[in-house]
């Protein structure tokens, strides 16, 4: 997070919209980072994925430019501690950030990845092919006959 904070440089045009980073003395800054580190370690419940998601979320907030270190620490404390709740937060963020078609494509990708993982991990080229299936073909895919081999639609 510290690297992301130090690397952040807003565009001159965006300065009027960006909150200013509060300058904190170096020792105080280290104390905040140590408290954040302790919070991550104390709330991970042995799930390293939760720690990774929490850190990634904080870095994204820093990259957005709207932060100060004290608020960032408070935001960390408000993140969901359960992975399912964390995934729901991520999905809500996707819905807010992206257009409905982009959100739908992301949802489809997640469904393919999760569904395939019950059999084996999905290869990237397989995911690309799966995402090429037109959404309107879903009803045809649910038929007992294979729609591709019976030429009912083409990809």
Find the count of extended strands (DSSP E, 2+ residues).
0
CA-based gyration radius: 21 Å
How would you sum up the global shape? elongated
State the end-to-end distance: 43 Å
Instruction: Please tell me the total number of domains.
Output: 2
Give the helix level as a range of percent. 55-70%
Strand content: under 5%
How many helices? The count is 8
Structural class category: mainly alpha
Low-confidence runs: 11-22
Return the average pLDDT rounded to an integer: 78
- Listing every helix as H and every strand as E from the N terminus to the C terminus, the arrangement reads HHHHHHHH
Largest sheet features: none
Assembly annotation: single chain
Give a short overview.
This protein is mostly helical and 155 residues long. Helix content is 62%, strand content 0%. The longest helix has 18 residues.
Architecture overview:
With 155 residues, the protein is mostly helical. The protein has two domains: 2-83, no CATH class; 99-155. It has eight helices and no strands. The protein has helices at 2-7, 26-43, 48-64, 69-78, 83-97, 100-117, 124-131, 138-141. Helix 2 (26-43) packs parallel to helix 4 (69-78). 3% of the residues are buried.
Outline the fold blueprint.
Elements: H1 2-7, H2 26-43, H3 48-64, H4 69-78, H5 83-97, H6 100-117, H7 124-131, H8 138-141
Helix pairs in contact: 2-4
